[in-house]
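Dear Dr. V.,

Thank you for agreeing to look over these. As mentioned in my earlier message, I'm a first-year student in the group and I'm still getting used to reading structure tokens, so any feedback on how I've presented them would be very welcome. I ran two proteins. I've put each sequence directly above its structure. The first is here:
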Amino acid sequence: MSESLAILEQQRAAILARILNLGDFRSGSISAITGRCGKPDCRCHKPGQPGHGPNYRLTRKVKGKTVSETFASPAELRKTKREVEAFHQFRQLSRQLLELNERICRARPVEEAPSEAEKKRPKQSNRRRRGK
């Protein structure tokens, strides 16, 4: 059962509208890092102590290299979490858009009239050129 082209195009418009409403987004992942500092007398070196942290970092690829960013405040961390989540939604909507466009391409009828580029070109003469 094939879907009508008009319905598919409405679905595509809805996905595009959702993409436009995403707002700011950025790629990457946020991870929590805990660790020990370099001060030997610090509490983090005592047995049973968890260490410092968690410190949150955004890790992403830029021109093939891994880049990490730390956050100056909890507000900056919350903002970045929203942006990364919006990026994941963007990727999901992009996949849906691609699948829908493929269905639209299959559903769109083929044009019967040939375009100017498809019209047959006249054959070249079999006569040899003079001067060669």
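The second protein is here, in the same arrangement:
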Amino acid sequence: MRINNVMDQLSPEMVAEFPERGMQWVKDRVETVVNETGDYVREKPTQSLFCAFAAGYILHRLPLGRVLAGLLRLLFTALKPAILIYGAAKLYRSAQEREAS
């Protein structure tokens, strides 16, 4: 209920700006991380090289394809009950509103 009240108070212009603000925030954060990483690499090149090697080795050894396939299977399995629950909640809400009026 509280979220709906907040959304009702927002103007269409403010709602239209949300994606733009979000993208700008992400862009700023990525830029900050890239700059900080560059500074760290310039300060400690040998340690950075060892960290990059270790990260590459670990990523190479991980079964990322299987992990992603498992996550997708889990998502699709959980999607059906989630849609059912969402529909039931909407139906219940609609019945409550009809009963109140």
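From my reading of the second output: The chain has a mean pLDDT of 85. Residues 63-101 form one domain. Does that match how you would interpret it?

Kind regards,
E.
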